[in-house]
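Slide 14.
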Amino acid sequence: MTGSSGIQRFCFLSVRLRLHGYWLASITALLAVLLAGCQSLPGVQQRDHQLELVFIGQQVLPQGYRYANTTVGGLSGIDYDAATGHYWAISDDRSEFGPSRFYELSLDLSHFNKTADPGHAGVTLHGVQTLKRLDGSTFPDVRINPGQATDPEAIRLHAPSGRLVWASEGERIVKTGEPPVLTNPHVWEMQRDGTFLRPFVIPEKFRASAGNRGIRRNLAFEGLAFTPDFATLYVMTENALLQDGPAASLTESSPSRLLALDYASGLPRAEYVIDVSPIPAKPTKADGPADNGVPEILALDPERLLLLERSYVLGVGNTIKLFLVDLHGATDVSGFDSLAGQKYVPAAKRLLLDFKTLGIRLDNTEGMTWGPHLPGGSRSLIFVSDDNFNPRQIMQFLAFEVRER
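Slide 15: predicted structure.
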């Protein structure tokens, strides 16, 4: 009896022996060796280890910070480049404050601290690039041409090729008596200078529509993540598609779709449902703004993801929570054009951290990435907030140590 299947049978045998009280010394000795293998079977995923996040500190860029003739703001996605030690951060500026763009920057974690006024000495900008359309031109100002503008929300590095992948949320404006403005969400691959390379194939059910199907406005593609082997690219809607269910409310969760894309072919592989939590609090005014959605995801392995939920409620402010999501056992719903009336198993989801426990001011946190390994060998985890170019908000970088046990 050899290999993982043999060890698994011995694991089962150990349970049977314990149940019947057969604790013969020779069998116990043998099982002690084999059970050690049960904890680290090659190719068998361990789902019971715990993640502990230890807050390192923060840095805050000043409002209206200028770099290379651009206003730095709207940072909605970030990814770490281990080869250079730098980060790629994408702005969701829809060419209102400058051409739609992304930045290269570095973060010195030794400057991060837990004070209310942490400074920004640990943040250094190194470059800025313009996002390009298929023909090489820049995207127009959304105020002038909303149908041709883009809404950049996420960026990831494909480390084996050195190329970048980014996602746009698209647009859906449907008003009575006016022509609809419909722009499909997309996931594109590009060179590091922003030059378009290729699109990933997005299923028709995600398209923008004037009817009761497709993406909701401002609730489409936000989360983007490569698996550690870079073979699969996950992209997630912030809330449910119109035909799938409600947007998150005070009483209802929202069944958002996670789309798995094959990197090599650019084709869809599968789709899963992750329920976005209800809005955590009531606004202080009955008609005041209140929402909850998923702005980012990050892969631990092919089946487990870190998932960020970000809520804003008038009079309450931002609620930021980090979850662990497990796709093991979840239904592939790619064959369902609508989730309504269908039977399926959503992905399991468990709270890891409520950011309110940090005791600091929180803002519109939207970006998340692994950072460098720390001196003790553990990984760092970095977050960035989107200030919406609003002087009442902040561009905040948060750093954590991630301990696994």
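Speaker note: The chain has two helices and 24 strands.
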